[in-house]
Amino acid sequence: MNADELLIWARGPGFDLALLVFVAGMLLRLFEILSLGRKRDLAEGRGCGAVGGLRTILSRTLPRRSVFLKEPLRILNGYLLHMGLFVAIFLFGPHIDFFKAWFGLSWPYLPSGMVDAVTAVTLLSLTVALVLRMNNPVLRLISTSGDYVAWVLTFLPLLTGYLAHNHLLLPYTWMLALHILSVDLLLVAAPFNKLTHMFAFLLARWYQGYQAGYRGIAS
Amino acid sequence: MSAPSVEKGIRFIREQIDAPVASFFSACVHCGLCAEACLFYTQTQDPRYTPIHKVALMRRVWESEFTLWGRIKSALGLTKPITEADFTEWETLVYDGCSLCGRCSLVCPVGNDISGMIRKVREGFAAAGHAPEGLIGATTRAIEIGSPMGVRLPALQAQIRHIQESTGLEISLDRPGVEYMALLSSMEIMNFPEYLEAIARILRQAGKSWTISSKAFEATNSGIQIGASDLARVLVQRIVDAAEELGVKMVISPECGHGYTAIRWDGPNLIGRPYKFKVKHILELLDEFREQGLIQTQGLEEARLSFHDPCQIARKGGVVRQPRALLGLVAANFVEMSDAGAMNWCCGGGGGVSANERADALRLTAFKQKKAQLDALKVDTLVTACANCRITLEEGLEANDMNIPVIGLTEMIAEHLVETDRIEEKSA
Question: Which of B208, B230, B287, B384 lies deepest, with the highest CB count within 10 Å?
Fold first, then answer.
C-alpha cells in the first residue's frame, strides 16, 4: 500500500468505520449509565433539582479557590490543553473543510499559523500533564494503563497533524495519512476508556447538582 | 442474615451502583485534585488517602460488570478478582481515613460525588465483615440499647430530673399532640446536657409545646456510618414510629451533624416513604424563632470567636446562613475562618471516625488542618453546632495545647435569652 492508498483508506472507509464505532460506542456507554437508573429522593426537598443540575454543569467549570491555590499548574494546564484541543480540532481551516464535506456544517476558522502555534503549545501542555502524572505521588497511584493509553491516543493526532502541516519528518502524504489514521484510532478507542469524560462530565455534574439543588445544599 | 464474606461484600457493592455512580466513574479522568480537598491526605501526604482511590474496589466492580469493555476483559480472564486482602487493604482507607465530610465532592472538576460513593462502598465493607470494631460496637449498642454509647432511658431521665430541679423548667417525656419532638445525641446526654437545658428554656420562651420520646430519643445513626442500610433503617423507623405515634408536627434534630443528615435526607429513603412530619435542625428552628420575634437576646459575647461549620450541617445540610444570623445576635467579635461555610474543613471525627479507636492517631494528625485554620484566627472561643465535632475539637485542641473553649451555639443563644416569668404555650 502506498501513501496515497493509505490516505484514501484512512479518510474514506477507515474514517467511516471509526466514526461508526465512536458514535455507537458512546451511545452504548450512555445507555450503560442511564439504564441503571436512580431512585427518587423521598426526603422533602428545598429547591429545584433541575436548576441545581444546570447550575453545577456551569459552575464546576471553575475551580474552588482553595484547591486552585494548591495546584495552580495542574489546573491551568488542564484548561490550556482542553482549549488547545478545541482550537486545533475545530478552528483549523482544513478540518472545517473536512467537516463541511462530511456533515455539511462550516464555521469561521483561525489563520493556520495561529492554529499551528496553539498546537505546539497544546503538545507541550500534554507533555506537562504526562510529566505531572508520572511524578506526582497521588497521580502515580491513581493512574492506570488506561490513562497512558488515552494520553497516547490524544497526543498522536496532535503530533502528526503538526508534523504534516509543517512538512516535517515524513513526506506530506504519508504524515497526513498517519494523522488521519491516528484520528481513526482515537475515535475507535474513545468510547472504551476515560475519554468518555467528554460527555460523562455533563451527567456527573448534573447528578450531583440535581441532588444539591433539590436539597438546597452547595454543589 | 448470611455470614460476612467477600462474595457478599462484592454483591453489596454491586447493588449500590446506579446511574450517578456509573456516570462518576465514566467521567473520572484521574486528575487527583480530590486529594487536595481531603484533610486525611493534606495532613499525611499519603496518596492512599486520595478520595477517589478509596472507592477503587467499587470502580473495579463497576468496570468489570457494568461496561462492555470490562465484561470482555473479565471473560478473557484479564480482570483481577477482588479478594479478602483487597478488603483488608482498603478498610482503613474507607473508614479510618474518611469522615464522609464531602469536601472532595465539591472540588471534583467533573462533578463526581466521591463522598457519596465512599458512603455507598461502606455497605460492601460491612457486608464483607471489614468494618472497624469501634463502629461495630457502636452499631450493636444502637440496635440493642438504643444508643451507640450505651445510654439508656434512666440516664436521660436522670439528666431531665437534674435540669428540672436546678432550673424549674418542665421537660416532658412522651407527651402526645405537641408541636415538636426533640432528638438528642448520646454525646449531649452524657457530656453536654447544657444543650437539653438550652432547648427547654428557648422552647418555653417561644411558647412552643414539645416533648422527648422515651422510645426514640437518640438522633445518631451508626447504621449509616458503618454502611449497613438495614440497621440504619431500623434506627430511623424508631424515630418515625415515635413521632407519628405522638402526632408531632416536627422533629428537631439536635446539635449533631450526621444525626441531621440521617433523619433529614437518608431517613425517608431508608424507610421508602416520605414522613408525615417535618424535620429541622435546631439552628434552622432557632433562626425561624429569631425572624418571627419569638426569642430575644440581651448582652453580647465580647470574646473573639469563630464558628466551626459541621460538615453534615453546612456542606451536606445547607444550614450555613442561620448560624451566622444567630451569632449576629450575641457575638460582638465574630470572625470567619478561612474556607468557612460549605467549604469548611472537617474536625476529623465525622463519619464514624471518632467512634473508631483504631483511627485515633490518624484523626489527631488530620486535626492539624483545623489547627492551621484556628492558628490563623487567634480566637478566644470556638462555637459549633455538633456534639461530635465539639468533642473531637476539644480533644484536638487539648492534644495541641491550645486553650480555646468550644461552645454549642444553642447553649450560647440560651445564655443570652431574654426570659419572661410566665409564657403560655401556644397550641400546636
Answer: B384
Q: Mark yes or no for CB contact A196/B33 under 8 Å.
A: no
Query: How many angstroms separate the CA atoms of B423 and B412, rounded?
Result: 21
The ipTM, to two decimals, is: 0.97
Residues B157 and B276 in one domain: yes
Mark yes or no for CB contact A43/B24 under 8 Å.
no
> Which chain A residue lies closest to B24 (C-alpha atoms)?
A204
Residue B285 lies in a domain: yes
Residue boundaries of the structural domains of chain A: 1-24+166-213, 71-143
Dihedral angle computed from the Cα positions of residues B19, B25, B27 and B29, in that order, rounded to the nearest 10 degrees: 180
In a domain, B138, yes or no: no
Residue B231: inside a domain? yes
Check which CATH number belongs to the domain holding B353 and give it. Answer: 3.40.50
Q: What residues make up the domain containing B158?
A: 145-291
Is the domain of B220 the same as that of B342? Answer: no
Q: Is A192 near chain B, with CB under 8 Å?
A: yes
| B-chain residue closest to A217, CA distance | B318
Q: Looking at the partner chain, which of A46, A193, A196 has a beta carbon nearest the beta carbon of B318?
A: A46
Minimal-distance CA residue of chain A relative to B338: A66
Question: Is the same domain home to B260 and B232?
Answer: yes
- Give the pLDDT confidence of B200-234 residue by residue, as tens digits: 999 999 999 999 999 999 999 999 999 999 999 99
**B269:A39 CB<8 A:** yes
Interface test with A, best of B25, B30, B43, B104 (most A CBs within 10 A): B30
Query: In three state form, how does the secondary structure of B91-146 look?
Result: HHHHHHCCCCCCHHHHHCCCCCCHHHHHHHHHHHHHHCCCCCHHHHHHHHHHHHCC
| Interface contacts A/B by beta carbons within 8 Å | 173
**Grid coordinates in use for B202?**
428557648
Does residue B379 contact residue B404 with C-beta atoms inside 8 Å?
yes
Cβ-defined contact of A205 to B111 (cutoff 8 Å):
yes
Given CA atoms B367, B369, B375, B379 in this order, what sign does their dihedral have? negative
B255 and B338 within one domain: no
pLDDT classification of B2: cutoffs 50, 70, 90: confident
A198 at B interface, C-beta within 8 A:
no
* pLDDT tens per residue across span B126-172: 999 999 999 999 999 999 999 999 999 999 999 999 999 999 999 99
Of B48, B273, B339, which is closest to A66 when you measure between CB atoms? B339
Joined grid coordinates for residue B93:
482507607
Residue B226, domain member (yes or no)? yes
